[in-house]
Specification:
homodimer; 418 residues; Molybdenum Cofactor Biosythetic Enzyme, Chain A; Alpha-Beta Plaits; 6-stranded mixed β-sheet; 17 strands; elongated
């Protein structure tokens, strides 16, 4: 842990009155923690000049750095800039570079410049501009007597761009005298403990400065490898990539992606590259798998459609599950999900069909088939694979976990047979 | 606005490092604002004795009240209780009433008492216990020299229960010397501005102490009426109900519920009470409507199932939309959604079917039918109604808004014909 005392300050009446939840601070807290510095405190205050100035005065006495977000837009209640100038005891001056950039953006968008836009270009004298690639209001950096103040807009994607493109490199890494490198692997089909056990032999050999975080979600785990090295030693990407490749060898096909993606997007890319059409036949998930597939732009290229066969009548009459199967094995059975796949292949015009039938709960279970019993099947005209899940009692969670497991089963099926 | 200076303090390392987002503060901020007091600041700090004590010492000098959450569980890093005792300069003493309640709860759950449970019963001497109906750790109330400190557990549903059951009545309302009464109407099918215009004649006649808030969401608006009266005047529920009934007369069927519900739950109750079976035939929403209907426990009583007819082949071969219609009018047309309803009624075993076909985007539009053109239809064997939406360019938003509009159309159809 680094000893720098850093706090995050978010400005905005809308946070105090609970109109919006302050996710910026959580994001910045996570990013700072990744570099080995946990924030000392997170403080949300109003768009109030006096309060902003008092907060900065008080923090500048005890802190090495304050990361501030919010209050930099063109509307009149955004008084952060004026407050910072008063705190710094400097005048506001016109920043030509900021103005030229805004003019350029507005020309491209064919929008007229308003007076309030020009007002945005008056910033505290001596402040260093942090480029905002996602908007017009720039970030600002100010250093004085060992205290560093960074001010960024409150719009999350603008704040994140400024942090990642400027603040991390210019301020944080030099401050902690470290380089940092990081990669996140997305895993489906294995739980956190299983992944930990599998990776243990590699993790025990990691050099100092490396750390692994497991971030579990519904039906997936994000595994994040972070390496921090001394600033003067330069980059460590070759060594880092070596360890990532060891992780990849161990986790193999359980890794469905890296960084910020999701299973449905990955499936979309797989379907496009293999020129495959897919379809769904769902019972207990009620259209969730179809809806996730359809959420991806361009899904109509590979998702032909689906059936939500909630009643046995639909399973029989449209999907073609036999009376015999439903009577002998029941709607929640391996036989039924197999016949659902076959029915889907017959009528949906898909190369591969995924089917799901289960008891989502909270009621409807029996001793033999308790709530949480879910059958999945994936098949094409040559192969069909099935899987049984034994989940819990919570309906919403059962539906989401089943949909996630179904999408992952479809992914593995494509990897195996195509 | 009330002049009491109140801040919210949340305790927890996991908030600072961004592992969890602090939603407690947003909730408390909203509740305080409803009573006319906006919080001065929201401060998140670590589970650190020194930091908790310093924060309390500093705030107690300038504030009327601090609402604190977090750090009251049985685990050893929860050091809030000890820190409060040191701040108050009182010893920890054993609270028999707290212990007996925990013993009672554990006996009912058939769980053994651990030492750490007993440790939870040592609280700062002189603190007033706030009953926690949802968990074992009680809330605490302390008053000294005009400063009030309230400490509640960080588990959101426990914190909310303590606030609503004890803090509001015991502390907040006496402090502001007010009574407060509130009701939220949920509106679909009308925008915020339209609702404002409709309600204006009533709102202009509201007595002082009444306020209206419009809280827009995707395809719905929450309209919240709040009345605050002097504490000594007692309750004002008859007058309040009078104004609510005026709102209800004006907004009529646009109101789908009150408080915390959603369209799919309301539809479920309607279907059960009218003994109706419903089904879906979706194109651009890709299963979203079906998934929302299926999300409600007990949905299998009234939701028979659905079709996701993404391709024209499925629209023709399974749903039975005619070649002629698809060729002359196209897949996104009033004629197609009508035939989708008829096809659904034929094969889904439902009394009422809802259908949707549109261009969700971001690409795929034409001059005649731009991205965001969505057709909806609802029908039974006697009536069919259609509606065209002209939405924007954003795929995700188009899908969610179309699904919401479809569910609301189904609701209005049931109210009209059953």
């Amino acid at each position: 842990m680094n000893n720098n005392k850093i706090s995050i300050v978010t400005i905005g009446h809308e946070i105090l009155i609970g109109q919006i939840v302050d996710t910026n601070s959580a994001w910045l807290g996570e990013k700072l923690t990744e570099t080995g510095m946990s924030p000392y405190s997170i403080i949300s205050i109003a768009d109030d000049e006096q309060q902003i100035i008092e907060t900065l005065q008080s923090l500048s006495q005890t802190h090495d750095m304050v990361l501030m977000t919010g209050g930099l837009g063109p509307t009149k209640d955004d008084i952060t800039v004026r407050s910072i100038a008063k705190f710094l005891d400097v005048p506001l001056v016109f920043f030509e570079e900021v103005y030229e950039r805004i003019v350029h953006i507005f020309q491209k968008l064919n929008r007229p410049l308003s007076d309030s836009t020009k007002a945005q270009c008056f910033l505290p004298e001596g402040v260093e501009i942090l480029h905002n690639s996602m908007g017009t209001a720039p970030g600002m950096l100010f250093r004085k007597d060992g205290f560093t103040l960074i001010s960024m807009p409150g719009v999350p994607y603008e704040m994140k761009a400024i942090y990642l493109e400027s603040v991390l490199e210019k301020v944080i890494l030099p401050l902690i005298q470290k380089n940092i490198i990081q990669k996140t692997l997305l895993i489906a089909g294995k739980g956190e403990t299983e992944i930990e056990d599998l990776l243990e032999p590699v993790i025990s050999t990691l050099p100092s400065g490396y750390s692994v975080a497991y971030l579990p979600g519904l039906g997936q785990v994000r595994v994040r490898l972070t390496a921090v090295s001394d600033y003067k030693n330069g980059e460590l990407s070759a060594e880092f990539e070596h360890y990532i490749s060891l992780f990849e060898n161990i986790l193999g096909n359980s890794i469905f992606g890296t960084g910020d993606t999701n299973l449905e997007k990955v499936l979309g890319q797989l379907c496009v590259s293999h020129q495959l059409k897919i379809g769904t036949v769902e019972s207990c998930t009620g259209g969730n798998v179809a809806a996730r597939l359809a959420s991806v732009p361009g899904a109509s290229e590979y998702f032909t459609g689906g059936l939500v066969a909630y009643t046995n009548d639909i399973k029989k009459n449209i999907v073609g599950v036999s009376d015999h199967t439903l009577e002998i094995y029941g709607a929640v059975s391996e036989e039924t999900v197999k016949e659902m796949v076959n029915g889907g292949l017959r009528i949906l015009g898909s190369d591969i069909v995924i089917s799901i039938s289960g008891i989502a709960g909270p009621t409807g279970g029996s001793e033999e088939k308790p709530v949480g019993t879910i059958w999945l099947a994936v098949g094409n005209k040559n192969h069909t694979e099935t899987k049984k899940l034994n989940l819990g009692k919570k309906r919403e969670q059962n539906i989401l976990l089943s949909a996630q497991a179904a999408l992952n089963m479809l992914r593995l099926f494509i990897l195996r047979y195509y």
